Amino acid sequence: MTRGELKGLLLLTMLLGAVTYFGGGGTFASFSAQTSNAGQAIASGTLTMNDTVNTGTSCLSASGPSFNNANDVDKSVNPAGCDKLLTLTNVAPGNAASTAKVAILNSGSLDASGFSVWGSSVNGTLNTAVSVGNVNSLTVTGLAGPIFSGQTIEVNYGSNLPQQFKATQSVTPPASPTTPVTFTISALAGGQAAATAALPVGATVTDTSSNTDGSATATNNTNCYDQKTTGGTTTATKGDSLTFNPIVGNPFCSHLLVFLQETGTFNYCWYGNTSTAFSLTSGLCVVPMIGVTLSTALATTGNITSLPIASMTMNGNISIGDQIVVTSGTHTQTFTAAQNILIGTPTVTTISVSTTPATSPAFPIGSTVVDQTASNAMNADTTSTITNFDTLHGATGKIPLSPVTANGTTNAVAPVQLAHGATRNFIVGVYMPAPAGTNQNYLQGLMSTFGITWRLDQ
Amino acid sequence: MSKTKTKRYLVLLAAVGLVAAALGGTGTFASFNAEVTNAGNTFATGTLLLSDSVHSASTCYSDTAASNSESASCSAIINTSNLFTNHTSSNRLTITNTGSLASSDLKLWGSSCGNSTVGTFDPGSNLAHTGDVCGSLLFSVEQDASDGGLASACVVGTEIGAGNHACAPTTGTPLGAWLTAHPTGTPFTFSGDTLAAGASRFYTIYLYLPDEDNTFQGRAASFDLTWHIDQ
Questions:
Q1: Under an 8 A CB cutoff, do A452 and B98 touch?
Q2: What is the pLDDT of residue B32?
Q3: pTM, to two decimals
Q4: Interchain CB distance below 8 Å, B39 and A20
Q5: Which 3-state string (H, E, C) describes chain B?
């Protein structure tokens, strides 16, 4: 029921009461009769959501330890949390995008008029309960991102109103998310902090001032943060043994490109590189395929209409119009893609191309096949970074996920963005660009950690 | 329920309705919402690092330098004095990828070679110390199966042959010509050679000074060799 309908009902009720009151003065007859309509029942609907990563087990909004239908906990800390999308190690520049499929289901009985996604705030889960009264510090686990002294800290639990404090100590995420982190707090205006309601273990602790500084300095306060990789051996040095890979300003987060691609009946690139015209019309984020080779030699006479490739699950997006370059030694030829192929499509064995005359010498088996349009766009991209996702689309810049009505087209005024029982599917991916001629040794041995939050509103 | 109570109930209902209707449009209703977060996603890079271990000397590491290109702490492969004609100097070297990523190549290049005069001479000596050592030396690089082990290929220079893959130093490549052909911009690439994480390559470097005249007395040549791997 909308707010307008509810208003109307209540006005009618008021009118009914008024008429009955003023119409009842001393006119009742001595005989009387009466009926009762008993058992009126008004039940509220539900608005809950399920999050399923690839073929994993769904996590439920209602299972969050904060008991407020928000499940924001790191699964490393609490098994009720949602699956990670990506865990990729030993990556080098230009590696294939690491991707995950995410299915968001409105598992409630009410339609959602709002469906949004954003870069998670710096948050954690309360690890030590706080009683009503004076409180000097908070201890959390699963701290995602740094907390700086002076920033606003909000604690949410159950149906309690959010309680706000001010951090008076700066802290950074530990090497392991399960390691508790304690930081001191004061009242928002300064002075002694006091909890007005008990804050049990499991309450969500959010730095609502986070994701406001994505600079390459020590004040970078994004949810995405960098750490040096650890645990090296004599034959595989890790990041913590190196001196030329500082993490100040989260340089890796500021370099990694992230994309959010909706799939299904239609495609839409919600965040990512859409710099090519082909991307916009196809609704596909620009993502280059990697490591593709010919499975059969190309003919040297006649016309080429398809490129036979070694069977693969496509690891990039190919948009109609993309320039596909086949290379063998110094011999290259450029073709134009004549089909869209979505990242994650299994068992891809050919790429259709516009009719192109064959050339000689032949391109043998093993010749490399590169989507040059996508590669050039992504390797030059400094915009679609995780840092920018956090700062542009944090909690105050949520991306509204309007229904997709055609490839690359949405209905921004649709009253229902996710109907009850409906599912919308997405692919989330990360790509490490390899800009030509750029030494990226400063990114060796670094690990970026980040989160993505989804929300339904009635 | 009595009439009075009924009236009171309905008045109360009306009042509730009035208040709620008046304020309902200003967002005081806490609407339903649901939220989930996929937290803790990680993306980590590997490392690509080189160690350079000269036989009977210390090992140096590329990451000692902020640029991951170290030279100051690396030993010379061959540092000999009293070299004489028709004589070979050699030494062994082990190159190791100490990172976690495989390299796609292994390259070698050299600096220019410089001649100099060394040592002290009898004031009465009239020897002309002008020999072009750089131009005379013959350079060979032999790849071995292990440190000090059997040769597997002579990658710069000429193999002894007849099944022996060791380099024949006396028929090596002229050093000057090799250095001219392989500066930084045009490195020598070890054909088809990648270096897996943790893998090593073993080399023996030879320098042979052919038969030369006395102008080569008290002369020295110096040059650098740089080993390089790419992701």
A1: no
A2: 93
A3: 0.85
A4: no
A5: CCHHHHHHHHHHHHHHHHHHHHHHHHCCCCCCEEEEEEEEEEEEECCCCEEEEECCCCEEEHHHCCCCCCCCCCCCCCCCCCCCCCEEEEEEEEEEECCCCCECCCEEEECCCEEEECCCCCCCCCCCCCCCHHHHCEEEEEEECCCCCCEEEEEECCEEECCEEEECHHHCEEHHHHHHHCCCCCCEECCCCCECCCCEEEEEEEEEECCCCHHHCCEEEECCEEEECCC
Window 100-119 of B: residues touching A by CB (8 A cutoff) are: 100-101
* Residue A390 to residue A154: CA distance in whole angstroms: 18
Could you tell me the end-to-end alpha-carbon distance of chain A, in angstroms, rounded to an integer? 10
Chain B residue numbers with beta carbons less than 8 Å from the beta carbon of A239 are 45, 47
Chain B 118-177, CB below 8 Å of chain A: which residues? none
CB interface of B with A, residues 52-91, below 8 Å: 63, 65-68
pLDDT tens track for A365-382: 999 999 999 999 999 999
Contact between chains at B35 and A70 (C-beta distance less than 8 A): yes
Residue A447 in contact with partner chain B when CB distance is under 8 A: yes
Given a contact cutoff of 8 angstroms between Cβ atoms, the answer to whether A298 and A324 are in contact is no
pLDDT band for A33, please (50, 70, 90 cuts): confident
In this prediction the ipTM stands at 0.86
Using CA atoms, how far residue B73 sits from A74, A148, B52, B183, B214, in Å, is 45, 41, 10, 22, 35
**Mean of pLDDT values over B189-215:** 89
Q: Answer whether B200 touches A (CB < 8 Å).
A: no
Choose among B10, B36, B45: nearest Cβ to A71. B36
- Scanning the structure block, which residue is given the tokens 């001219």? B180
Option in A51, A244, A447 nearest B44 (CB): A447
Q: Give the pLDDT band of residue A22 (cuts 50, 70, 90).
A: very low
Query: What is the average per-residue pLDDT within A129-135?
Result: 96
User: Would you call B67 and A89 a contact, using CB atoms and an 8 Å cutoff?
Assistant: no
Q: Can you tell me which residue has the tokens 């590669």?
A: A375
CB < 8 Å to A13, chain B: 13-14, 16-17
pLDDT at B220: 86
Q: Are A379 and A97 in contact (CB under 8 A)?
A: no
**Rounded Cα gap, residues B219 and B84, in angstroms:** 10
At A64, list the tokens.
Answer: 């969050």
DSSP at A395 = G
At A134-153, the pLDDT tens digits run 999 999 999 999 999 999 99
Beta-strand pair A323-328/A331-336: antiparallel
Instruction: Calculate helix-pair angle for A3-22, B3-23, nearest 10 degrees.
Output: 150
Whether B14 and chain A come into contact, CB under 8 Å, resolves to: yes
Contact flag A142-B39 (C-beta cutoff 8 Å): yes
Q: Do the chains contact at A229 and B15, CB–CB below 8 Å?
A: no
Out of B7, B35, B47, whose CB is closest to A453? B35
Tokens of A317: 């997006």
B108: Cβ–Cβ under 8 A, 6 or more apart, which residues?
A: B141, B182, B187, B188, B190, B225, B226, B227, B228
User: Residue A368's beta-bridge partner residues?
Assistant: A293, A327
**pLDDT for B216:** 82
Closest CA to A308 of A342, A340, A352: A352
Which of B33, B41, B51, B53 to substitute to test the interface with A, most A CBs within 10 Å? Answer: B41
Q: Which two tokens stand for residue A233?
A: 């051996």
Residue A141 burial class via C-beta count within 10 angstroms: exposed 0-12, middle 13-18, buried 19 and up: buried
The residue ranking higher by pLDDT, A179 or B212, is A179
Contact flag B35-A242 (C-beta cutoff 8 Å): no
Q: How far apart are CA B135 and CA B195, in angstroms?
A: 32
pLDDT given for residue A245 in this prediction: 96
